[in-house]
Design goal:
Family (chains A, B, C, D): Belongs to the glutaminase family.
Order of helices and strands of chain A: HHEEEHHHHEHHHEHHHHEEEH
Binding site for substrate (chains A, B, C, D): 63, 113, 159, 166, 190, 242, 260
Subunit structure (chains A, B, C, D): Homotetramer.
InterPro entries (chains A, B, C, D): Beta-lactam/transpept-like, Glutaminase
Number of helices of chain A: 14
CATH class of the largest domain in chain A: Alpha Beta
Oligomer: homotetramer
CATH topology of the largest domain in chain A: Beta-lactamase
Structural class of chain A: alpha+beta
CATH superfamily of the largest domain in chain A: DD-peptidase/beta-lactamase superfamily
Shape of chain A: globular
Radius of gyration of chain A: 18 Å
Helix content of chain A: 40-55%
Largest interface: A-B, 39 and 39 residues
Strand order of the largest sheet of chain A: 2-1-8-7-6
Enzyme class (chains A, B, C, D): hydrolase
Largest sheet of chain A: 5 strands, antiparallel
CATH architecture of the largest domain in chain A: 3-Layer(aba) Sandwich
Low-confidence stretches of chain A: none
Amino acid sequence: MDLQAVVDEIVAKMSPRLGEGKVADYIPELARVDPKQFGIAITTVDGQTYMAGDATVPFSIQSISKVFMLTLALGKMGESAWKRVGREPSGSSFNSIVQLEHEHGIPRNPFINAGAIVVTDMVLAGHKPREAIGEFLRFMRYLTDDDTVIIDAKVAKSEHLTGYRNFALANFMRGFGNLEHAVELVLGVYFHQCALAMNCVQLSRAGLYLANRGTNPLTGFSVVSPKRARRINALMLTCGHYDGSGDFAYHVGLPGKSGVGGGIMAIAPGKASIAVWSPGLNKVGNSALGSEALEMLTTRTGWSVFGH
Amino acid sequence: MDLQAVVDEIVAKMSPRLGEGKVADYIPELARVDPKQFGIAITTVDGQTYMAGDATVPFSIQSISKVFMLTLALGKMGESAWKRVGREPSGSSFNSIVQLEHEHGIPRNPFINAGAIVVTDMVLAGHKPREAIGEFLRFMRYLTDDDTVIIDAKVAKSEHLTGYRNFALANFMRGFGNLEHAVELVLGVYFHQCALAMNCVQLSRAGLYLANRGTNPLTGFSVVSPKRARRINALMLTCGHYDGSGDFAYHVGLPGKSGVGGGIMAIAPGKASIAVWSPGLNKVGNSALGSEALEMLTTRTGWSVFGH
Amino acid sequence: MDLQAVVDEIVAKMSPRLGEGKVADYIPELARVDPKQFGIAITTVDGQTYMAGDATVPFSIQSISKVFMLTLALGKMGESAWKRVGREPSGSSFNSIVQLEHEHGIPRNPFINAGAIVVTDMVLAGHKPREAIGEFLRFMRYLTDDDTVIIDAKVAKSEHLTGYRNFALANFMRGFGNLEHAVELVLGVYFHQCALAMNCVQLSRAGLYLANRGTNPLTGFSVVSPKRARRINALMLTCGHYDGSGDFAYHVGLPGKSGVGGGIMAIAPGKASIAVWSPGLNKVGNSALGSEALEMLTTRTGWSVFGH
Amino acid sequence: MDLQAVVDEIVAKMSPRLGEGKVADYIPELARVDPKQFGIAITTVDGQTYMAGDATVPFSIQSISKVFMLTLALGKMGESAWKRVGREPSGSSFNSIVQLEHEHGIPRNPFINAGAIVVTDMVLAGHKPREAIGEFLRFMRYLTDDDTVIIDAKVAKSEHLTGYRNFALANFMRGFGNLEHAVELVLGVYFHQCALAMNCVQLSRAGLYLANRGTNPLTGFSVVSPKRARRINALMLTCGHYDGSGDFAYHVGLPGKSGVGGGIMAIAPGKASIAVWSPGLNKVGNSALGSEALEMLTTRTGWSVFGH
């Protein structure tokens, strides 16, 4: 299959539609991004990268960072992490607090905000915030084998200043004893992890270990066991798109994780890691063109995990 | 891979544990089933069936019927079916009514009771209940290529007599205008579809079209398009085990649908359709030994859709 | 104080506004009532009745019947009735089912539909539906000392045919074991009690025992103890207007119970029983002009229980 | 009626039961209070005070302060205050956040924590926190005509350190734009108002304006209009005891407001203001002995607003 032709075709189809959807406006720094951009990159398990459109323009990965922080936390805590966060779809929006009250401060899964904050609290254990941020950044550079990946401090600050809902979630869980560190410290790390800037090429490489039984085939680095890679993929498929996870599975058929910056990382197990980016979001908060591009991709490639 | 050895090994592992879990007791007729039973059958896309344990003992498929009724309804309605039922995990138990009130009578997905009742209402369109039940039964015989499949009228009656919660759900949706037929008629069909009796061998054959791009390789019958087969698989993976769907995806990694009779049907796209059965249920209402058996199976076979 | 002048003045103020609000349309028979009507009657504890406007036009008392059925049920069950229904405001609409799921089938109070259905089930104990309806009708004639009070069978039938939500509530509670009789039987009585037709004069007399320490001063009949009268008044004040109870207490300051037929019964303890009626409802489902009329009344008379 | 005999009798009945209930332990400083205390004071509208038990021992008034802050806020904002906070019972616990999410950051009433935080934000307008605290303290001294009333800084600090849930509520509402000042500032004031220390005698005098048409009969100071006094009483009756408000109305029959410090202020309109205090709380978070004492009081005096 000519994957370069596939990504070129996707970019050609998306070009006239650039600007569709609605850029996230609750984080002022993100609201300033030019909506008329679209990029895609595929890195296959045999190490080839195919890219098209704005594939080398950096963007804020936002919630996609939750996958990588979960990987770090599972490395530290093992399966005991699941005592503090569940593994079920939430049936509500990314920043809902209702479920937390009904379930005594245990978030439904690590990919909604509340769950990711608990995961960050796990990674923070034994560290100062600055060190935890450093660990995360090193991990991302290790995954991408690229030291140019950086955290956008402006975005982190912008999120901090307007992150009332996250402060609410964190304080709420702290009240239930499900946060070991002070809210300010945990969110300090959290806002920085969300503010990581990557482009599609880098992001597609970062996720490659999940497509390749836990090992990055580009570097040979073993990141997680094959079993854990499968399990993280399972979590992404059931919970990776908030209350649009079912829809994404239905249309795209790949494990994936979206961010409000407009990025989506998707994993075709045994085949490739894919990154798409376009800032305009659909109604459930996932990149509008990005979601459609991935549906086109799986239609063309037959990569859906649910059959070809 | 020697699949017969795999199923034999699974039965050997499960034998000392027969009787674990809790048999569903809210349907009196089901409560009378001997809990110390376990069966498994795998039918591959090349037409071989491997079985072990109580694989030829018939049991009540209960909610597994929701997959087949959805297949029928999509055949009648096409994608317009999704105006009346969603495609997202519910984040609550199989018979919850809370979500229905919050979302104006539109059930979250076709695999919780409320959603399945709407689906039954779709299949009923233009028919008398007796005809719709007949259509369903014929469809199941067509899928299995086996005319001995029957509906257990005693079970249907038992469910009817104690099905207050389903009457509540149906009346609630009827109040919102999301049920076109009288509650009694729709539930009359619904209780009969749930009461279908099959054994593991039959069930594994019935699901084979979902593993084989919509076509039953045993008979050559085309049931749905490849795309629709993928999509039904996606729905099973995200929503097939109620509020244990995330957990099932995490541990087993296959699309699947469980029933309170203790059966589970799982699909390995491109490879096989699997049926397990053991009456004792775990905390979220899925067969306890059946769930574990499927985890053993995917560990041994590498069939998880999330990588091997 | 010249109460006749007060009611005349109220009618004069309301006359130009007849037709405001929205007539309940979910019960077809009620939707046919002429909205441009307004009546008021005050019966004082010394036995005088003051009336104005359409005070002798019969209307469907609907949920106001819940007060009288509760009186009957407490007579049968005593305080043990509170094991099956709570005494707290619900914080939700009259026909909400969410709370029932969260609180295991125990309705929050006897004045929301679910609670009233449980109360009807209590009154039904040991009776056939026809007998229970007869008991209720005799009780209402006894309270009003007026044998012309009747049940409007057409309205009862109309409610029965469209009462899906009540069937949902009743089945739901029956599933939790909080209904002792078959749903059809309980709702058969329930729809009849709601369909009682009275005019303002009759209704003001029916409530007089609640204003007069449990005894009807017109007939000398003792209905309940002074303590029970106080307690029923307390329940009406906190729960009598669904999710508008706080607002009614704030503006009117009297225990009261409204019905979707547009009637409101209000009690000024130690002083009088008041009935107002006007079919148009406000946003929370209480008579729009009726609520305002009562606010005018307490402003003019100083009868608010919260001070004058 | 010999009110001194009434309070003496109540203290005699309560003496053998001192220590019942459970002292609030989530605020460490409050957890240290000796549970075996009970005090009661009645101040009548003609200026007499009757006291018994530990009526002169100061305690933390906690949520009772919400009544006085509401009085201040209404003075500043008038009825426009109700755009930012509702007037309906919440149907949930004092610190629930569920309702806030469902109703877009508008708390149900000013007597749950979320509502009181909004009220504090109103009082803070145009002030520094220190000034707002000063204004509140002066107001309380004015109401009691007693300059010895103080704020317990230790308690305020203790609440601040453990007040995660209140930080969650405040951040949540700030995210919805329903808090004009920074969370830290608003809660700084809030924790201080809750930490006001008063004894029963002082508290009974502070509430006297609500029993006397808005005017303190001891000092002649006009605090609010008669209408506003009635309305605040109505709010206390429907919402003053969180999810035990219905029960309190049922058993006691007076407008009242409780605090987790074990105090309850109750108003008998036209007659008296009553304060009781005993640290042990019942299941819904109101003083166990205090609630019962008030029921005894209204039984003996016939002061229930629902009839005698």
